[in-house]
Design brief:
Layout lengths: L1 E4 L22 H12 L3 H8 L3 H13 L13 E2 H4 L3 H6 L6 H10 E5 L3 E3 L4 E2 L18 H16 L5 E4 L3 H4 L10 E11 L2 E3 L2 H18 L4 H4 L8 E2 L8 E5 L1
Parallel strand pairs: 1-3, 1-6, 6-7, 7-10
Antiparallel strand pairs: 2-5, 3-4, 7-8, 9-10
Helix pairs in contact: 2-3, 6-9
Length: about 260
């Protein structure tokens, strides 16, 4: 089983990590191609392209100019393992810092994080601070956008990691999952969704759905889940699998 997550916009490079191992990201050469294009953009161009404030544009312009992609097995203030560097709602739900040693080892085996800059990241991959959403409309080499640039690279890697009997649990957002060519993936793809009962209707509430993706990731790791029936047992924070709402490859959890 493999789990796909999105990264987070918020980053944390200050908190100490419980797991010392750092690994080199898989697609540094391809990442440098993306960064070379980013480096040519002014703060004003970044602000317009990424729809961010002038302060964030200035910060990320500096990051783009100084990014080295150098790899060291020791953590520094500029490099941190991806799963601990990201600090959004998904990662609040996952809370990788408090995982047991056994669950942390399972995380290294099962979890993959899709990334606009790095393509795909393993939990311990050493990354520098960045901001680049997969949906950013920026041509890269022959590709029209980041989705098209990363899609063949990400899909080829996933197929090397799975067999036809394996399950890929898609807990990434639609924006990031578009970097996966589902027609070429030789595995079963299961997409869980999480809904809240509001005024008699089931609705996806972004904040809760993001946190639930992290909660499910943690549930899989802590309980050694490897099949669909195991996924259906997810019950963190009041969620329960809805047989009536679910479809074959789309498991709906409600509360």
């Amino acid at each position: 089983m493999k789990i796909l997550l999105s990264p987070a916009k918020s980053l944390d490079y200050k908190t100490d990590v419980p797991f010392a191992t750092l690994t080199e990201p898989l697609f540094i050469k391809e990442s440098k191609v993306v960064n070379d294009i980013l480096k040519k953009k002014s703060p004003q161009e970044l602000m317009e392209l990424m729809k961010i404030s002038s302060n964030l544009a200035e910060l990320n312009w500096k990051r783009n100019q100084s990014r080295t992609f150098k790899f060291s097995e020791k953590r520094t203030t500029e490099f941190k393992q991806a799963v601990y560097a990201f600090n959004g709602d998904v990662y609040t739900g996952l809370d990788a810092y408090s995982l047991s040693e056994e669950a942390t080892l399972a995380m290294q085996e099962k979890l993959l994080i899709l990334s606009g800059l790095y393509g795909i990241l393993r939990p311990t991959d050493s990354i520098e601070p960045y901001r680049l959403e997969m949906g950013t409309k920026m041509p890269i080499a022959e590709a029209k956008n980041l989705h098209d640039y990363w899609k063949p690279i990400v899909s080829k890697y996933l197929n090397k990691e799975v067999s036809r009997e394996d399950i890929i649990v898609n807990l990434a957002s639609n924006e990031y999952f578009r970097a996966v060519d589902t027609k070429k993936i030789n595995a079963i793809i299961i997409t869980p969704d999480f809904k809240e009962l509001r005024d008699g209707k089931l609705k996806v509430v972004s904040f809760f759905a993001k946190k639930a993706r992290g909660l499910m990731t943690r549930f899989i790791l802590e309980n050694n889940i490897n099949d669909i029936e195991g996924l259906k047992q997810f019950n963190a924070e009041g969620y329960a699998w809805s047989e009536t709402e679910s479809k074959e490859n789309n498991l709906i959890f409600t509360r």
